[in-house]
Amino acid sequence: MSPDRYGTDILASDPHRQGRFAHRPTTRDAVAELGLVVEEVETGWVGAVTAVEKSGGMHVVVLEDRRGRTRTFPLGAGFWVDGKPVCLVPPTRAVARGPVTAGGRALTASGSLAVANQKARVARASRIWVEGRHDAELVERVWGDDLRVEGVVVELLEGVDNLEAVLRDFRPGPQRRAGVLVDHLVRGSKETRLVEAALKALPGRAHVLVLGHPYVDVWQAVRPERVGLAAWPDVPRGTDIKTGTLAALGWPHDDQADVARGWKRILGSVRSYKDLSPALLGRMEELIDFVTAVPE
After folding, report:
1. Distance of alpha carbon 203 from its chain centroid, rounded?
2. Which of 30, 172, 216, 282 is the Cys-Cys partner for 207 at CB 3.0 to 4.6 Å?
3. Is 64:48 a contact under the CB 8 Å cutoff?
4. pLDDT higher than threshold 50 for residue 16
5. What percent of the chain has pLDDT over 90?
6. Is the distance from CB of 87 to CB of 75 less than 8 angstroms?
7. How many Cβ atoms are within 10 Å of 281's Cβ, its own excluded?
């Protein structure tokens, strides 16, 4: 029998792990768990993982150094942990079990009894408007399940300056109610004056309910302890509320991408209605009751 020139197993040895390469460390996968301390090889930045999120269609990791500064890097290879090369991979998200009653019945994030195996109903004619995208995302996070069951659509005003035009186009009536949530609706504020002007001569005004919370931005409706604060920072007049808040938190705040990432971190800290201020909770519950009280 002729000898087997290929040997018994051509994959038994790795030519790249022989000779002077024999002791080269191998890269292993490491889950980017919160608190894991890593070094980014190219820049030498050392920090603890504070967030893993999607940005621009890719996963990124946020690292916070010992001085509280943060930087964001693409997830993957190019990191060291304990002096060894690793490829950071996103953590596996566990299937979250929502809140339950004492008897074990499932609740929605708003505290309502969850309705199982029910499709979203056909949208009502009535609507709820909120000022912007962040307001809408927070409402969806806490009340989304309830709103789908009730068939209530939430739309964006894109600023209270548009309230009058939106309501005139909507033409509210007995079967077509409009609920509106406004930021910073307090005595003497610009928002209060705009709401009063919008409702002054509006046909169907009786079928419109405008409510608001006292915060300049809906970010402050999240309980500050959810992001490690005793209270939200007092941002000086003339400074953008979002960038000023991020600066006070010590988070990146140079551009709109930083604002977006900061908001995602704040929104991600909200688990249920218990993480929101009563000043927002009560107003949203009133608006939902108002627009769903119409006989169908």
Report:
1. 37
2. 172
3. yes
4. no
5. 51
6. no
7. 18
